[in-house]
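Researcher: Next sequence.
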Amino acid sequence: MGSRSILIVEDEPLIAMMLEDFILSLGHEVSGSCDSVGAALREIENGECDLAILDVNLKGESVWPVATALRKKGTPFVLASGGHVDPPPAEFANVPMIEKPYTIDRVTPIIEAVLASSET
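Model: Next structure:
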């Protein structure tokens, strides 16, 4: 599959750093790390990534505008949740979900599956 560029959208700095470590250990690059909807939208507009991992709740703000922007750009993404959140809107109901806390065993298969399906 080769090295891919992954965008992290996560509002907790320690969790974002841990996820970045997992991504790097899998041989991928981190294209950016954003802690808000506004920062993520700017990153998507100005940068390129092969995949994004989106925390569904960013400091009380829903990540759906970011998901919409990624979908318009044709960039695959994964949703992440620590639970206790409303289900995603119907248009994102089929998007893969990672349950927090992140572990390498949870992150690896989802990243590989999403990247593999985006190659076809």
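Model: The helical segments are 13-25, 37-46, 64-73, 104-119. The first strand starts at residue 5 and ends at 9.
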